[in-house]
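Need residues for this backbone.
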């Protein structure tokens, strides 16, 4: 079972005292039509109260009330930071989770013990902490049986979210870039395979060019072939220019052929001029003809 859970399950424990930011806690005239507002326990800010707004269904968002005004999102988060004083990762994470974390309203940051979570996660999941000026915390996912790592910079920008299952898979992946890419190219979704090629291209491994070229020629999904061809251009793989001309002239998908023309326009190998000229004159796709013409223009 994932720790944390929906915050509203614990709202019955909350008690609002007059004078803690709002004079009349029963006033709901500020709540948008179709939404309900419930006071959030555990967040204590001078002259402010924290609320969760809920709509029928899974939607929820956080808000602060102060002196009769309602604040949400980044404005509310920065207002809370100014009121907090010295950084407290736990308190800051609660506020971030409520106000700026996509999908976080209704969840609480995890602060439990390692034996409360999946053993596969115990090596890297931990309580809220600061790394320099970056806040890092974990919380339960609202719909999946998983946990989410959230990173927030000093200004309140959410730098990224990652599922614990993805972090665990990354840590367990082969360390050899080619072995890892080979495994990741078996992913069912094309975006995972594209990410694998980009990761390999940035690895600096001298075997990457040949591996990516093979993917450009053999992957069934045209989007993966297009990405592979694009990586060859970015890697300045001039030694593969002949193979790129072959892809330009033979791949069945116009966007892959366009990517080949663009890659050749990056490599600027004179011997590819004839292939680009043929593509400019005879390719059935205007996308390819335009890309070939642009590549030839760069060669002048």
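Answer:
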């Amino acid at each position: 079972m994932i720790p944390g859970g929906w915050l509203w399950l614990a709202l019955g424990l909350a008690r609002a005292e007059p004078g803690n930011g709002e004079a009349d806690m029963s006033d709901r005239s500020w709540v948008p039509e179709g939404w309900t507002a419930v006071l959030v326990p555990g967040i204590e800010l001078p002259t402010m109260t924290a609320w969760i707004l809920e709509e029928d269904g899974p939607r929820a968002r956080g808000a602060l009330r102060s002196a009769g005004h309602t604040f949400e999102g980044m404005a509310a988060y920065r207002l809370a930071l100014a009121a907090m004083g010295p950084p407290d990762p736990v308190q800051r994470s609660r506020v971030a989770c409520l106000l700026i974390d996509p999908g976080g309203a209704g969840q609480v940051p995890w602060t439990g013990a390692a034996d409360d979570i999946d053993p596969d996660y115990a090596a890297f999941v931990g309580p809220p902490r600061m790394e320099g000026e970056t806040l890092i915390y974990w919380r339960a996912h609202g719909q999946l049986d998983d946990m989410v790592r959230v990173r927030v910079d000093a200004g309140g920008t959410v730098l990224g979210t990652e599922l614990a299952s993805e972090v665990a898979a990354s840590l367990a992946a082969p360390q050899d870039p080619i072995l890892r890419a080979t495994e990741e190219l078996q992913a069912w979704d094309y975006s995972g395979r594209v990410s694998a090629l980009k990761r390999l291209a940035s690895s600096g491994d001298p075997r990457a060019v040949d591996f990516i070229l093979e993917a450009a020629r053999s992957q069934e999904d045209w989007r993966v072939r297009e990405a592979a061809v694009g990586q060859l251009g970015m890697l300045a793989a001039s030694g593969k220019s002949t193979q790129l001309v072959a892809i330009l002239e033979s791949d069945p998908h116009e966007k892959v052929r366009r990517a080949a023309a663009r890659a050749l326009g990056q490599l600027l190998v004179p011997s590819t001029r004839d292939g680009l000229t043929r593509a400019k004159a005879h390719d059935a796709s205007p996308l390819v003809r335009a890309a070939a013409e642009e590549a030839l223009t760069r060669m002048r």
